[in-house]
Amino acid sequence: MTPEDGEREELIIGKLRSANTQEYTNKITNMFNDIRVSRDLGALYKETIMQEPNPKEYVSDLEPRILDSGAWQSIFNKSNESILLPPMLINTQEKFAS
């Protein structure tokens, strides 16, 4: 993120504060933060994978999305369904979580 992007983000949040409730503005602020954290963690993950002895064991172009359920709940429906991940994704998930 460039300094200009950060300034634009602050400008948008400032305008939202003046036009909306504090609760709504807090949710939007949390969403911006989630996007920033996701981007930073993704970059760190890619650096970590490239240092592994066998990086091909992992998904190297993983783009994680860290989402605060309170802020994003209205966008995504909650689901109780589970999925079975292929072994390569299981390795990747475990590496990302470590």
UniProtKB/TrEMBL annotation:
SMART domains, alphabetized: CULLIN
One Pfam family from the record: Cullin
GO BP annotations listed: ubiquitin-dependent protein catabolic process
InterPro entries membership: Cullin_homology (IPR016158), Cullin_homology_sf (IPR036317), Cullin_N (IPR001373)
Molecular function per GO: ubiquitin protein ligase binding
Residues of the Cullin family profile domain: 1-98
UniProt family annotation: Belongs to the cullin family.
Protein's name in the database: Cullin family profile domain-containing protein
Organism encoding this protein: Wickerhamomyces pijperi
